[in-house]
TrEMBL record:
All residue ranges annotated as the Glucose-6-phosphate dehydrogenase NAD-binding domain in the record: 9-182
Protein origin, superkingdom: Bacteria
Pathway the protein contributes to: Carbohydrate degradation; pentose phosphate pathway; D-ribulose 5-phosphate from D-glucose 6-phosphate (oxidative stage): step 1/3
Gene3D superfamilies to which the protein is assigned, alphabetical: Dihydrodipicolinate Reductase, domain 2, NAD(P)-binding Rossmann-like Domain
Keywords per UniProt: Carbohydrate metabolism, Glucose metabolism, NADP, Oxidoreductase
Catalytic activity: D-glucose 6-phosphate + NADP(+) = 6-phospho-D-glucono-1,5-lactone + NADPH + H(+)
Signal peptide: none
One Pfam family here: G6PD_C
Residues annotated as the enzyme's active site: 235
Protein name: Glucose-6-phosphate 1-dehydrogenase
Function (record text): Catalyzes the oxidation of glucose 6-phosphate to 6-phosphogluconolactone.
Amino-acid positions noted as binding substrate in the UniProt annotation, renumbered to this chain: 173, 177, 211, 230, 326
Taxonomic classification: Bacteria, Pseudomonadati, Pseudomonadota, Alphaproteobacteria, Rhodobacterales
Species this protein is from: Falsihalocynthiibacter arcticus
């Protein structure tokens, strides 16, 4: 179903994110017929070039970042016709009057701030001064949304000067994943799970976002951030909220976001003994974190594992273990809900028995698996075994799965539709920083140093111990 007619201005339209994600995503939506005929996409950046040159750049980006099976010359040509370019300086006066002339009245206007956050204020201000944005316009802002509570508050304040909260779309692409929305469908669309979704039946929850890539050329930038700021404060926290929140009374933006916010506010402060930080060592495939960061005195972590407790009626006593890092064994993101054992085994002691686990895979191969116990087939008596009930979305949806939008595509279309459900609200972001800040400050005060781990491993030994000491174990990173 096509969305309403729109003008989408991408500030930073020549940058890495625009080339790799935003424009290839828009192309795919165009190809699948979701874009109205009159839609306009306007790239805006400092580079002095015209629309023809910009279209070439985007054509090349589509070739590079869209798989061949989705590329056909007719769609690409049609898509490029929607695109124009304007030279603009976020901090200067040039280009703004031209942008005003280019954008239309009476269509949805969205402005994607795909630039450094230090420019957000300049862009917001000029969109108003030049009367380009109106009260119906939307702005999309990228991570990082601040580096601590104070800077996040300052960013929120600067945007609030010119835009209402209902116009601000803070992107966390994890929320655009099909599985993440399916998590809500599974939780709240079935009667089966929700009665068990509490500390009486759930032993613990594991949330893992493992990457194989190193910091690479982004080393100097990453060194000012680290895994806690780059991954936990936003992506992992958002997943935690969705898995732990109370049922909202309706699937509407504020109803959902109110419930997420309550989870963040219920998080206990974390003991330093419940956190393991790591940084990768060199191996034959690449240099160490220290070398890549270019900072021999670095105390930044490229890996973090932590145990988090939620102080509320539902979750008291059920820990949530978070883990994320770079240069790990495999690229995988999943949430695993590990259920308790039945209160009594009528089958006597059965060695190696493992309980029910609901695993929600975000990547690769989005899908869900529920591990259940059955009888081992055959005449061997009442011996139990576990089998997975597997729901891979690709299998379930068949050929249609190929056309499932990726996270960015879906989220940009949600902006045009005016649906904020999958975007972070300002108070959520601030609450997440308010929880993260004391942890980071404590490391700094203590001069905490990350532990080494082998590239291609599952992280530092101490991360394994974090669960072992509770009589639990991490799921394998594979
Ligand atoms: P980039 O450096 O590749 O591109 C920056 C863009 O901003 C360029 O188009 C540049 O011309 C433009 N720009 C810079 N200064 C400007 C000015 N004064 N006026 C107008 N335009 C100006 O950056 P990127 O990697 O595309 O990232 C953009 C934003 O998205 C950043 O905030 C980044 O943190 C965030 N982000 C990027 C990624 C990613 O994968 N690249 C992922 C998540 C978030």
């Amino acid at each position: 179903i096509p969305v309403e007619d729109f003008d989408l201005v991408i500030f930073g339209g020549t940058g890495d994110l625009a080339r790799r994600k935003i424009l290839p995503g828009l192309y795919r939506r165009y190809r699948s017929g979701q874009m109205p005929e009159g839609a306009r996409i306007i790239g805006a950046a400092r580079q002095d070039q015209d629309s023809a040159v910009y279209r070439k750049l985007i054509g090349a980006a589509i070739k590079e970042f869209v798989p061949e099976k989705y590329r056909d010359s007719k769609s690409i040509a049609g898509f490029l016709e929607l695109i124009s370019y304007i030279v603009i300086d976020a901090q200067g006066a040039g280009g703004w009057s031209d942008l005003k002339k280019l954008t239309r009245k009476d269509v949805v206007k969205a402005f994607y701030f795909s630039v450094a956050p230090s420019l957000f204020g300049d862009l917001a201000e000029r969109l108003h001064t030049y009367k380009i944005a109106d009260s119906q316009s939307r702005i999309v802002v990228e991570k990082p949304f601040g580096r601590d509570l104070a800077s996040a508050k300052a960013l929120n304040a600067v945007l609030a000067e010119h835009f209402d909260e209902s116009q601000i779309y803070r992107i966390d692409h994890y929320l655009g994943k099909e599985t993440v929305q399916n998590l809500m469908a599974v939780r709240f669309g079935n009667i089966l799970f929700e009665p068990l979704w509490n500390s009486q039946y759930v032993d613990h929850i594991q949330i893992t976002a493992a990457e194989t890539v190193a910091v690479g050329s982004r080393g100097a930038y990453y060194d000012k951030s680290g895994a806690m700021r780059d991954m936990v404060q936003n992506h992992l926290m958002q997943l935690l909220c969705l898995i732990a929140m109370e049922p909202p009374n309706e699937f509407e933006p504020d109803a959902v976001r109110d419930e997420k916010l309550k989870v963040i506010r219920a998080l206990d402060p974390v003991n330093s003994s419940d956190i393991v930080r790591g940084r990768y060592e060199a191996n034959k495939d690449g240099p160490s974190y220290l070398e890549e960061s270019g900072n021999p005195d670095s105390s930044t972590e490229s890996f973090i594992a932590m145990k988090v407790n939620i102080s509320n009626w539902r979750w008291k006593g059920t820990p949530i273990y978070l883990r994320t890092g770079k240069r790990l064994r495999a690229r995988t993101s999943e949430i695993a809900v590990v259920f308790k054992d039945p209160p009594h085994s009528i089958f006597g002691k059965q060695e190696g028995r493992r309980g029910n686990v609901l695993a929600i895979r975000l990547q690769p191969n989005e899908g869900m698996t529920l591990r259940v116990t059955i009888k081992e087939p055959g005449p061997g008596g009442m011996r139990l075994m576990e089998v997975p009930l597997d729901m891979s979305f690709a299998d379930a949806l068949g050929a249609d799965a190929e056309d499932t939008p990726d996270a960015y595509e879906r989220l940009i279309m949600d902006v045009i539709r005016g649906n904020q459900t999958l975007f972070m609200r300002g108070d959520e972001v601030e609450a997440a920083w308010a929880w993260t800040d004391p942890i980071i400050n404590e490391w700094q005060e203590r001069g905490d140093m990350p532990k080494s781990y082998d590239s291609g491993s599952s992280g530092p030994e101490d991360a394994l111990m974090l669960l072992h000491k509770d009589g639990r174990r991490w799921r394998e990173i594979k």
